[in-house]
Amino acid sequence: MSMLDGRVVIVTGGGRGLGRAHCLELAAHGATVVVNDLPGEDAEPAKEVVAEIEALGGTAVADPTSVSDFDGVAGMIERTVSQFGRLDGVVNNAGILRDKMLTSMTEQDFDAVIAVHLKGGFNLTHHASLHWRALGKAGKPVAGRIVNTTSGAGLWGNLGQLNYSTAKAGLVAMTTVTAMEMGRYGVTANIVSPIARTRMTADLAWDDTAVEGFDRLDPANTSPAVAWLVSEESGWLTGAVLRVDGDTIMRVNGFEMDQNVRYRTKADHKLDATKLDVGMRKAFGVLPGGIPSSS
Ligand SMILES: NC(=O)c1ccc[n+]([C@@H]2O[C@H](COP(=O)([O-])OP(=O)(O)OC[C@H]3O[C@@H](n4cnc5c(N)ncnc54)[C@H](O)[C@@H]3O)[C@@H](O)[C@H]2O)c1
């Protein structure tokens, strides 16, 4: 019995790069995979991945829906459930870049990236969650799994990627709220932050030296984490941000209030704008604070 036997999973952007690697890994563990990707200019990448999976004895279908098409994504879920009788996981992986510095970025550059990453993530998460909620309300068992994809650019920011960083940070918030709202229906939501050599990162000057045969930038390195996250086993983990770097998975903590950098006015009084400059300088350590206060 393989870890994902009997489970049906949709992977968006599954025709290339990380998505392709996820599809192959999921199929290797027994999942039926819906390989979603745009038809593309050079043949149909999703169909090629389906052929690879079938050649290895697995089950997969290609789906050409654009993730940014709200109704189209609903149709993809309906087709999946009617063809395979179930849906167990969705992997929001599809992505594009339109990198420019803020002052050169056009409205189209911004909208295009938000439409694929952020709205695309919402579309699939929303329609899959509707499906799982209906099952839960009908008293049927649900182990729904949502895996989103963020980036170092979303977690920490990156020059020239305002649109992308904004979308990828938004997906972290989407994961948090989805985890909060869908837990009661047996659905988890987690998000991975991969690092991989793909078409998307082809222009980056990374050190790609493989260490003793291990290729840190192989897109397939993130796929075991994705396979586990869509399995029933991982049901105890939700709302997590996981950085996957080569052979290592690390939890990334979200925003935290820093109790060491704080300014408080007189207790239970409104802040006074005219006092903030000195107060904030002290809080940030730009001015000496003097004797530590207990309040
Ligand atoms: N490569 C990295 O190091 C890295 C790092 C952090 C995050 N990511 C994220 O991982 C994901 C995969 O990136 P990749 O590096 O494999 O890139 P990639 O370009 O190789 O693959 C992205 C795939 O998404 C598909 N896609 C684009 N728009 C789509 C749409 N509207 N509907 C359906 N499919 C669509 C593309 O056709 C392509 O096959 C992206 O979300 C990316 O932001 C990648």
Looking at this protein, list some descriptive labels:
binds nicotinamide-adenine-dinucleotide, about 300 residues, single chain, Rossmann fold, about 15% strand, alpha/beta, 2 domains
Structural account:
The protein is of the alpha/beta class and 295 residues long. The protein is built from 8 helices and 8 strands. The chain folds into 2 domains: 8-251, Rossmann fold; 259-295, no CATH class. Helix content is 38%, strand content 14%. It has an 8-stranded mixed sheet, sandwiched between helices. Helix 1 crosses helix 7, helix 3 runs parallel beside helix 4 (107-137) and helix 4 (107-137) runs parallel beside helix 6 (162-182). The protein is globular. The model has no long low-confidence stretch (mean pLDDT 95). Nicotinamide-adenine-dinucleotide binds at residues 12-13, 15-19, 36-38, 40, 45, 66-68, 93-96, 116, 120, 149, 151, 194-196, 198-201, 219.
Topology readout:
Blueprint: E1 8-12, H1 17-28, E2 32-36, H2 45-55, E3 59-63, H3 70-84, E4 89-91, H4 107-137, E5 144-149, H5 152-156, H6 162-182, E6 187-193, H7 223-229, E7 241-245, E8 248-251, H8 273-283
Parallel strand pairs: 1-2, 1-4, 2-3, 4-5, 5-6, 6-7
Antiparallel strand pairs: 7-8
Helix pairs in contact: 1-2, 1-7, 3-4, 4-6
This protein binds nicotinamide-adenine-dinucleotide.
Specify the CATH architecture of the largest domain. Answer: 3-Layer(aba) Sandwich
The separation of the N and C termini measures 59 Å
Trace the largest sheet across and list its strands: 3-2-1-4-5-6-7-8
SS field, number of helical segments: 8
Instruction: Characterize the main sheet.
Output: 8 strands, mixed
